[in-house]
Each structure stands twice: as C-alpha cells, then as structure tokens.
C-alpha cells in the first residue's frame, strides 16, 4: 500500500482565480460527492471518501477541502492526513503526487494533486483521504476538485455539496434499524435479520457494528447469546463478519469489502444461539462505537418460552387393535418432543374419566427425543382406554406437558 505524506505547496497555488482561460480538460470534472456528509468536532482519524466523475480523459487532478464560499479556501484546520492511493480505482502508474497544506486566510487548506503519467480515464473514480483531524469550531465545508493542463491557479473547480462539522454531528451514516428474529424463543437456534437505513455511502474498509442488549441494558443474560457460529449473508452488504466478546451484551461487526450505498440494506445472521434467559432484546448499530451519539436503536423484541403443542390439535390419526398413531401440531422452536402414555387400570368396568382410574406414573410408557410431530405406539391392549400427553423440548429445556387426552384401541 502506498501512502503519500505532507509536502508544502508554494503560496501562489492557493490563490483562486478571478478570471482565466481554461485549458482543454479544465472542465472535465463534472461532479464530486463526499462520504460522510456530517462529522463531529475535533474527531480524529476521520476518513473522507470522494467520488469524482470525469467526462474526458485528464492528465492532472487536484482536490481541496474548502470552508464557506468557494472563493475562500482558508478557515479550516485538518492535521495529519494521508491519501490512500491503493483505495482508488485510478490508473496510477506511472504517477507523481503531492499531499499538502498551506496557510491562507484564517486557517489551513488540505488537498492533494495527482500528476498522471498517462491520462485518467472517463468515468467515476474513488479516492480515500484518511487520518484527518477535524477542527474544533463549527463550520460548513465542501470539497472542490479540478482537472487541468496548465497552472493550478488558472483552473476551475467543481464542488461537492456542503457538509457540517459541529457538536453532535453524526459520524455514522446509519439513521434507522429494524430487526426480526425467527424463532423468538428463549434458548432456540434462530436467524436474526437486520435492516439498516444508510443516509450516505459508507466507504469500503469501514465497519458496521451490531449489538444486542437485554432488557435494562445491564442484564448479563444478553451476553449468553452465541454469535460465534452465526453465518453472515446479505444481497447488498459485502464484507466479513466477526463475533465480538463482551461482558453484558452480544455483539459483532461487518468489515465492508465494498462501499455500501445509501438506502436500505438487509443482513442476516443465521444459526444464532438465543440466550437461555433473556426475555427481551433491543438491537443497535453504528459505524463508530466510540461515539454514543451515533448509535441507532431498534424496537424491543420480546422473547417467549418454548410452548407445548396445542391440545386441540392432538389426534389419533390411525387406530388398530394393538397400535395407534398419535399426531400433534408443531411447536415453534421445538427440536424434539416427549410423549407419555398411560393405561386404564380396569377399562372394561370403568369409562376411565378420572386420574385414579389410570396407572401410576412409574408405569407410564415414555418416548423421548421424538423428532417428528407424530408417534406410532405399539403393543397396546385390545379395546382398552389410554391417555396420552406431549411436551416440546429444545436442547435441555422443555415446555410443560399438555393436559391428558383419552383414546381407545379397537376391539
């Protein structure tokens, strides 16, 4: 990776033109956009990503950070920037370049010049300026770029929209977050789907941080969410997901390997192990976890305990003299089921309507680890009353049993 450091530029370059005859490619920069569009006072290690569009081939390109009106390039103090050439999609070989600062008005100017050994092609070009330190006073700024063949002082500039540097300005361009979890069952293995709204492009190499907080934000139960086996996927978010270890919340980050455009983006974390005790969770997202003002919160989602199958859907779907097939509805989040069957002690004389008519618990027939919502029970007595019940299980956690339901085998 090649880094270009400061070099002082002679003062005449900083003088803006009042009138000048333009060289052939002076008007070839047709648009300039900047990410982020709003940044925090005195923030350090700030990165500006420029998208510069050219309409013709150019031999030189220069960009400045300007304050206030376009005719005054002073009034801004940025310290210690570098230009990351490897993050640009320009043809850079051979090339001479300089990154500079210089005094003008009541502050300093930061910018760079590219002198191309061969012409820069027509189209969109990404440039990353990193390592900037923002000023400690409010202001409105813009970035202007120009292409030129003669002297820089005779060139014309194309400007980006203005961006603010001020107290409380969001360093994160994420403005909204919604999420769902399926299933929202305590202790279940689930898929977490997050939709984030991005106001301005997030540069490649940036990270999107996600956090999951339990009710009260201090309950350590949220930290029991296991993201380590989660599989990250998205149609538009391209990057590498890493689970983070923390004390009282679950978190992870996606390092973008491609810039993320403004708009809505959905990302999915599949195979997340829900916490065994968290009753509700809130998700949050940011691109700058060190700045609490950039955090965006979702609505809270309430998790529920695993429930037993509905009794109304418990049926005997096949009945023979010594065999029946018991069937029930699938319980959300259940991995297995446990079925119990008990026989009437003397069903020829009684209708077996009361609990005392049936066998004691130690004589129940028990079927554990049933993976389907049905069970064939064999070796029953002909023409005999039985009762059965079922419960849902998830790993080592199980719901309560349903109430008993009666059936009779064929005579």
TrEMBL record:
Taxonomic superkingdom: Bacteria
InterPro entries: FN3_sf, Ig-like_fold
Signal peptide: 1-23
Keyword entries, A-Z: Signal
Protein name: Fibronectin type-III domain-containing protein
């Amino acid at each position: 990776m090649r880094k270009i450091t400061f070099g002082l530029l002679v003062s005449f370059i900083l003088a803006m033109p009042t009138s000048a005859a333009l060289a052939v490619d002076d008007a070839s920069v047709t648009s300039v956009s900047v990410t982020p569009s709003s940044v925090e006072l005195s923030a350090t290690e700030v990165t500006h990503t420029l998208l510069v569009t050219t309409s013709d081939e150019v031999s030189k390109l220069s960009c400045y950070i300007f304050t206030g009106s376009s005719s005054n390039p002073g009034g801004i103090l940025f310290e210690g920037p570098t230009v990351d050439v490897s993050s640009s999609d320009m043809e850079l070989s051979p090339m001479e370049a300089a990154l500079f600062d210089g005094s003008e008005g009541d502050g300093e100017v930061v910018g760079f010049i590219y002198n191309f050994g061969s012409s820069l092609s027509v189209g969109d070009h990404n440039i990353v300026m990193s390592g900037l330190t923002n000023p400690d006073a409010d202001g409105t700024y813009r970035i202007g770029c120009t292409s030129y063949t003669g002297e820089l002082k005779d060139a014309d500039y194309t400007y980006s929209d203005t961006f603010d540097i001020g107290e409380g300005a969001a360093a994160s361009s994420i403005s909204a977050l919604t999420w769902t979890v399926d299933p929202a069952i305590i202790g279940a293995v689930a898929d977490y789907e997050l939709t984030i709204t991005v106001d301005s492009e997030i540069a490649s190499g940036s990270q999107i941080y996600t956090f999951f907080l339990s009710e009260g934000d201090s309950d350590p139960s949220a930290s029991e969410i296991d993201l380590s086996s989660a599989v990250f996927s998205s149609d538009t978010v391209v990057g590498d997901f890493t689970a983070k270890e923390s004390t009282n919340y679950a978190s992870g980050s996606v390092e973008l390997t491609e810039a993320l455009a403004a708009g809505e983006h959905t990302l999915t974390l599949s195979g997340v192990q829900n916490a065994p005790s968290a009753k509700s969770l809130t998700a949050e997202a940011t691109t700058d976890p060190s700045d609490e003002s950039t955090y965006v919160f979702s609505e809270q989602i309430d998790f529920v305990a695993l429930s037993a199958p509905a009794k109304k859907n418990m049926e005997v779907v096949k009945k023979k003299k010594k065999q029946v097939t018991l069937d029930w509805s699938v319980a959300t989040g259940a991995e297995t089921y446990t079925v119990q069957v008990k026989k009437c002690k003397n069903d020829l004389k009684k209708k077996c309507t009361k609990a005392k008519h049936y066998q004691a618990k130690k004589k129940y027939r028990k079927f554990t680890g049933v993976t389907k919502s049905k069970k064939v029970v064999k070796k029953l007595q002909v023409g005999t009353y039985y009762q059965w019940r079922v419960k849902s299980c998830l790993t080592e956690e199980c719901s309560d049993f349903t109430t008993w339901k009666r059936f009779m085998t064929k005579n």
